[in-house]
Model the fold of this input.
Amino acid sequence: MRSMKIIDTISEIKSQLQGYRKKGKTIGLVPTMGALHDGHAALVKKCVAENDISIVSIFVNPTQFNNKEDLRLYPRTPEKDYKLLQKLGVDYIFSPSVHEMYPEEDKRIFDFGQLDKVMEGEFRPGHFNGVAQIVSKLFKIIEPDNAYFGEKDFQQLAIVKEMVRQLLMPVKIIGIPIVRENSGLAMSSRNQRLSEEQKINASEIYKILLESLSLKSELNPKKLTDHIMEKINRVPGLQVEYFQIVDGDNLQTIDSWNDSDYIVGCIAVFCGDVRLIDNIRYK
Done:
């Protein structure tokens, strides 16, 4: 097993990677906020398999939290994370402090058109601007050839791809399918905050989304949206924040199943005070 290095400064990670880059080695990056689970592990395995050098960043980014309490409660499990990443064969962990990444306030404002105005963007103002700030910083520091993101954060993946296009960054963005618990619940670091009873209730989200695939021939997108929201809201402890059936490329809602060849249903649900997101592909 290769030895893994944990680095917490920008100057050191740049210095470490310089030699590999000169030798033409490929560099892969998995940006995370820690509290790693099997969903992250799927990203890391792909990164390790496809690149000469693999890096996982662990940084709970304050600029993407519009809710200060959510930032405070976000799970942090560094020792457990390090053990998992060592086992998976990662070469470097980049785990900087907030001051290291933001020695001064990042005042950049990104324009993603309508991509960040809907769904997550509507309910978490400033969230995607914070995501773009930190991901662009990481890409500038690491200069990866490939970067890996989970498709659970469907809108985030679209935003990152658009950011890379706008900034002309030479990095390939690779999306990895959602990894689920045995119950069907999408794996998330926030699941650690759920009680066993809440996990059972939260697993109904994906079951209801799956059932909706068979209703497509009977209901138009608007009626199916209403049906899903009503059904999930009847589950004890669950409250839908939004469910939207959208064009998978531009994230705008559709009126008819014929409006696009790439249709995705995206959802955010509160289970108690824990906010969970998921999605399902219709076409």
In short: The chain has eleven helices and nine strands. The chain has two domains: 5-176, 189-278. The two ends are 42 Å apart (CA to CA). The beta strands are 5-7, 27-32, 53-58, 92-94, 146-150, 172-176, 238-247, 263-271, 274-281.
